[in-house]
Each structure stands twice: as structure tokens, then as C-alpha cells.
Amino acid sequence: MKKVLLFTICFWVVTVADAQTKPKQKEAPPTQKEMEEMMKEAQEMMNEMSPEEKKMMDSMGVKMPDMKSVKKTVLGVSDAQLKKAFDDENRIVPLKDIARINTVLANSVSTAQMSEYIKKTHTSILNKLSANTKVTGAEIYQQITRLNKSAANTAVGLWMDGKPTLALYMMAEACKANPADAVSLNNYASFLTMCGAEQLALPILNNLNKRYPKNSSILNNITQAWLGLGDIEKANKYADSTIRVYAYHPQANMAKCVIEESKGNIPAAIEAAKKSISKAYSQEKEDKLKKLGYDLKPDDINWDRPMPQDAMGLGKFSWPDYPLDVEQNKLLLKEWNDFKNECKEKITELKIKQQLLEEESIEANNIRTKQLISEGQKGNFIQPLPGYAAKAIKKLGPGVNDINGNVSFVFAKELELVTNALASAGDYETLLSEKQKVLDDKYEDQIGEGKPNPFEAICKDENAIRTEFLSAANGKLHAAYKSYLNYARRRSSDLLYYYQYTMWPDQFELAKINAQIAWLTEIKDQRVYFKEKSDWCKTPPKTKKPGGALQNFDDVACQYVSTMDLGVYKITSSCSNLIGEFDFGGVKIDVTKNVETGRFSGSAMVGVSKGFDGPVGTEVEGSIAALVEWDNSGITDVGAIAGVTANAAGQTIAGADVKVTVNGGISTSGKVILQGIK
């Protein structure tokens, strides 16, 4: 427990230091005295650690903070500064910035002036960027030029990947090279807004709005810019205009949400957030709804991936019949023995795989845990769960709640029918014994030398009561097992589908093996009663019924794999994978060394243009293939926009004609990047 507490305190201390006293939301801001007490407590806990504990923490990638440095950073902040940081953090909408608003109103940019405006803006921004950003940005730009890749799409990739300053640098270069490209201008303006330079973004966006009226992407980005400047009336006006074009616009609806919240209109804020999350899920939006007092429902989320009826092909498995009379008994007993032996052999094979997969999964989980801790201490975010996990838990979780987490795939509650049938079979067996005693008494004095010896009658009578027993006991058991196994088949398929989106690939492979072992065990362990024909009967020879090999399981593979290739940045979307990756043509470029990193809410419309000039909006259906959503945790959703004919699931979007139109979202943490820029 002490180790856990120590890690929690240390993580808090480092977070406070890195955030430069940005407090978490609480009822009241912390005071310097409280900070001092926390520092003292953390130091005492660190002093109490044994060398073995420190070594263990180090092996986990947890580096102990330099308390002297932390104290110097944190304790040098006054109560007034702490309160201001607290108020800024918890303000629903920004204060109205009259000075910057006047700058916008006094400044307009014509299409002819755009090239000069971009150059001037970029020069100002360069003064705000770190040396690392400028060096790395130039290196990336040179390489993509050699590769003949799109600088504009590379910039979007950098933005999605949490490299806003590199994205700013790259998008400026793309705009300088082609100031007539409206898509790049729109994206550059959205970056400027999310980094805190709304007054520089609006002249670009106002120009685009005149050239491309009623474009949902441009209208949304204007909404976000005015919201960032604190002009709520204008922001609300443009948010409404965006929503009129596309009712479920992810970012415009979130802007509408915070505007309504700031007015105290919570029901309207909730409705706007629900529209936003409907087509583009993110954990941030769900958290916002929870803060507003609304618990997200499964029906609030769009899920366009049908659940398979029988993922592993369990419905194709067959087993011998249940004997319902003594004539079937001997042959079916042999078939059942062969079937059970075949199941046992397959289970033995699977258990060997199960053990190997368990070891691999433990190792993979250890690696993920260490990476999560070590990268977290560096300020880098690592996804703790597969990309679609949060959405799947909310959307699919209620459908598997009764078995959620039960990786044995045995459904005890539904076994009640089988349990009842087994109890009834016991009663039938007792009844059979009673009837057998009656027959034994009936024929006791008729068997022997010089007596009638009615063998055929005894045979007939004994076969009759045994057949009666088999028909009753096995008939009821067969119906019960059929009902249970049909349920188990459906629920196993549902649960595997759920795990496909909520487990890492190594964990899912183990879950599949667990499901297969459970299924073979269940069909093997069916309780079947057998009763031979009466010994008083003459038994004719029986021929063996041809048997077949045990059915093979169908492989459960993700049917929804799509890629969006933006040049040097590729987004891969599958069931357990939702990531973006860079490939600079084999050249190693360290994009992680840029310390000014961070992710901000937003979305992008990705597709191949069909002769459309300008930023892609939801109203241009033919140009849209997919909607990509991201927040501070990374890419959170990939889907299609309602009404469009193209869908990203199962297809590849690539080529020189790929257009990516960025729609900025609500951002506060990114504003400091260009804070104070003229």
C-alpha cells in the first residue's frame, strides 16, 4: 500500500510541477501552505522507502522526482497565482478579449493578399517556437519534399499525433508553397485558433467563408475562433449556422454545449453534447456529459458494425444423438465415447496453446505497464486501452453485462434448465428401478427348468420400461442442453465480439482459446443416459455408423480494417487497433524530442476529392470517406458521416488526391503555445 501511495503522491507532484500550478477542478484552489504540506508529506514518504522498494519502482520505469527542483518550481507561486490558475482552468467560456477582437475587426485579408499574410504570420510564429521544433520541422519538410509527399497532410498527421508546434510549422510551409490551397488555409487557421492565435486565424477564415459559403468546416472553425476570443454571441451564431448544415457536427455541437452551459441552460447543453458524441465518440465528451449530470446511454452512440451471429462457427458443431429407445443404445454409446475422446484430445492441444498465450499476455501486459508509467513521467500520453475500448464498453457493455469479465465462457445461470432436467432424470431412474422390481417379482416364479420361461415377454416388458426411461430422461435433457448450448453459442459470440474491441490482440487471442476450450468441454460433458436391451433378448449384430472428424472452429478475425494513408502518416483502424504512425521513408526523425507537445479536441474529414474545390464539409457527400475524431488521448473514433455513400470501414484511403479538412474543437490547454502573439 505504501508503494502505491508513494507513486500516487510522486505522480501528483510531477504533474503539478509540469503543469506550472494548473490545479485540478476542486471546490477551492489550493493555497501555498497546502502545497508546502503536500511537499513535506511526499518527501517523508520517499525518505521511508527501502532500497528494495526504490529498486522495484525503478524497474517499473518510475523515476523519483528531484524534490528540490519541484519545491523551487511549485512553492514559488503565490496564492493569487494559484487562484488565477484555478479560475482559468474552471471557466466554462473565455473572458471577452476586447483588444484581440478589435484587431480582427480592423483586419481583413483578400485572396491576393493571402500569400503575404501567411508569410508575415509564420514569421511571428517562428519567434514562439522552440529551436527543437524549427530544426525538426525543417528536417521533416526536406524529407517529405524528397519523397514527394504532401506537407499539408503531414502537418495534419503531426497535429493528430500530438505535435502541435511541428504541425504549425509544417502547415505554414504548405500554405507558403501554395497560398491558393483553401484546404491548407482552413487547416492552418484551425491550428492557429487551437494554439491561442484566434485573431490571426479569423482573417483567413473570413476570406474562405466569402469564397465557400455554407461550408460546415469553415463555419465551425469560425465558431471556435470567436469562442476563443470570448465573443459568445458571434460564436453561438456561427455554431448555429454550422449545425444547420450538419445537425450532428462533432465540434460545433461541443461549442454549443459550453455556450449553453455558460448560460445555465443545462438541458440544451446536454442535447448538444449528445449530438456531438453520437457520430464521433471521445471519452472527453462522455466525461462532459457526466459533469452535466447525464449518464451516456448505449443508444446515444452510433455503432455501424453489425455483430456476427456465430463468430467461431459453433453452430456447425455436431455431436451424436441422444438414445431414446434401447434399439439405439449400443451404437450411440460407442459414438458418444468416440466423440468425447476426440474432444479431450482437442482440449489437450488447446491447453498447450493456452499456457503459451497466458505467458505471452503476461509479458505483453508488463511491457505495456512499464511503458505507460515511464512515458507518463516524460509527459507523453500512452493509450492504456485499445482505441475503441471506451466506446465499446459504453455501447456494447450493457449487452454482455451478465457475463462481462467471465472469460471461462460458462454461463451458470442458464445451466438451471439442465440442472432441473438432471434432477428429473434422477426421478425417472428411481421410477425405472421400481418398475424393474415389479417385473422381477412378476416373472420370478416363471423362470427355470420345467417352467414357462417367457423370455420374449420379459424382453419386451424390460425393453418397454427402459425405452420409457430413455425417452423421458434423455428427451428432457436433450431439450435442456439444446436450449443452453444455443444460448452459450450466441453469448460466446457476443462476448468475443465485445472483447475484440476492448482487449489488446494478445489478450484477445487468449480469450478465443478460452472460449474454444469452454465450448468443447460443454458439448463433451453433456449428460446422456444409456440403457442396454434386456439380457433376455436375442441381440442382432449392429453395424457401426460412420463418424466424422470434430468440426474446426472458425477464426475470429476483425472484419473492419481500414487505413488512411496521408503520405508519411498512416491511420490504421481495426477492432483492437486505432493508431496513427509516421514513416519518413526509412529516415529516422525523432518527433518526440519536441517538448511543446499536446493533443487537443478536434476532427477531420478524410477523403478523395471528386473535383471539389475547397475544404471538405459534410455537405459535399461525394468527397467524404471518413470522419476521424481525436481528443487529448489521441484518435478516439473513425466512422462515416450520416448520409454519405462512402465508408472508411474495410477500405484504404490513399493517393495524391487525399484531402484532409480539420475541424477545430474546444481547446484551453493549447492556448499558451501562441499566447501574447501579435
The rough form would be described as elongated
Count the DSSP helices: 22
CATH architecture grouping of the largest domain: Alpha Horseshoe
Radius of gyration: 34 Å
N→C terminal distance: 51 Å
CATH evolutionary superfamily of the largest domain: Tetratricopeptide repeat domain
Strand order of the largest sheet: 3-2-1-7
Q: Pick out the low-confidence regions.
A: 1-26, 643-648
- Label the structural class: alpha+beta
Which CATH C-level class of the largest domain is it?
Mainly Alpha
Number of domains: 3
- According to DSSP, the number of beta strands is 8
| CATH topology title of the largest domain | Serine Threonine Protein Phosphatase 5, Tetratricopeptide repeat
The major β-sheet equals: 4 strands, mixed
- Average pLDDT across residues? 82
Strand residue content: 5-15%
**Run of helices and strands:** HHHHHHHHHHHHHHHHHHHHHHEEEEEEEE
Give helix % range: 40-55%
Layout of helices and strands, plus pairs?
Layout (H helix, E strand, L loop, with lengths): L1 H17 L13 H17 L2 H9 L7 H8 L4 H12 L7 H8 L8 H13 L4 H17 L3 H10 L3 H14 L4 H13 L3 H14 L4 H13 L3 H14 L4 H13 L3 H14 L3 H9 L34 H52 L11 H8 L19 H28 L11 H48 L2 H20 L37 E4 L3 E5 L4 E5 L19 E7 L17 E6 L2 E6 L12 E2 L4 E7 L14
Parallel strand pairs: 1-7
Antiparallel strand pairs: 1-2, 2-3, 4-5, 4-8, 5-6
Helix pairs in contact: 1-2, 1-4, 6-12, 7-10, 8-10, 9-10, 10-11, 11-12, 11-13, 12-13, 13-14, 14-15, 15-16, 16-17, 18-22, 20-21, 21-22
